[in-house]
Amino acid sequence: MSTSTDHESGSKRPRLIVALAGLVLALLLLGAGGFMWLSGDTAGPSIGGPFTLEDGNGRTVTDRDLHGKYVLVYFGYTFCPDVCPTTLAAVSDALDKLGAKADQLQPVFITVDPKRDTAATVRQFTASFTPRLIGLTGTPEQIAAVAREYRVYYAEHRTGPGPNDYSMDHSSMLYLMGPDGRFIAPINAEQSGEQIAAAIRKLTS
């Protein structure tokens, strides 16, 4: 025979399952860059804007310094075990496949882990993919500001008690910006270099 406690527990269980499912879906949308709805939505929020960061040589770089070329922006971090290296390797391959058209494009990596990603760390990391890639870091406040401009989600995920025992959850998306600094379209970061190159050709033709 079931008790009233058993009945109450049973009635709450479906609601708990629904709540947990909703939370998991929200986290997946944020963490996986689930905002492809931005593509082609001219009425949506603006993407990109003014920023001041530091490159791998310690020089100040602003958004205006990148005007004049198409810019392919990616947010990640150098301690990323798989997603970031895979994406940046695909970007490097895309540049090779673009041939002479790659001269019109500037790829940019912006860290979401400014506590560990110093200018020197970012320089070494980006150089391992292609010398064309500019790596940018800054203060936590500067990174938070540029992330807001690009509607980027990121959050520290603790993995242990030590100061460096953490990973970074972050959205993974390539942002194609025009020579005037305006947002053109998102590009799926999970594609191959050939697919990324094809998307860039189509969007810049």
Structural account:
It is a single chain. The chain is α+β, with helices and mostly antiparallel strands and 205 residues long. It is globular, with a radius of gyration of 20 Å. The chain has helices spanning 4-31, 83-98, 119-127, 140-149, 193-204; strands spanning 52-55, 60-62, 70-76, 105-111, 134-137, 154-158, 166-170, 174-177, 183-187. It has a single domain (36-204), classed as Glutaredoxin (3-Layer(aba) Sandwich), CATH 3.40.30.10. The model is unreliable at 1-44 (pLDDT under 50). Helix 2 (83-98) crosses helix 5 (193-204). It is built from 5 helices and 9 strands, in the order H-E-E-E-H-E-H-E-H-E-E-E-E-H. It is 37% helix and 21% strand.
The helix fraction, in percent, is 25-40%
Number of strands: 9
Query: How large is the count of helical segments?
Result: 5
> pLDDT average, as an integer?
85
Corresponding CATH superfamily = Glutaredoxin
Largest sheet: 7 strands, mixed
**Approximately what portion of the residues adopt beta-strand conformation?**
15-25%
CATH fold annotation: Glutaredoxin
Could you give the order of strands across the largest sheet? 2-1-5-4-3-8-9
Question: How many domains would you count in the coordinates?
Answer: 1
Overall 3D shape: globular
The name of the CATH architecture is 3-Layer(aba) Sandwich
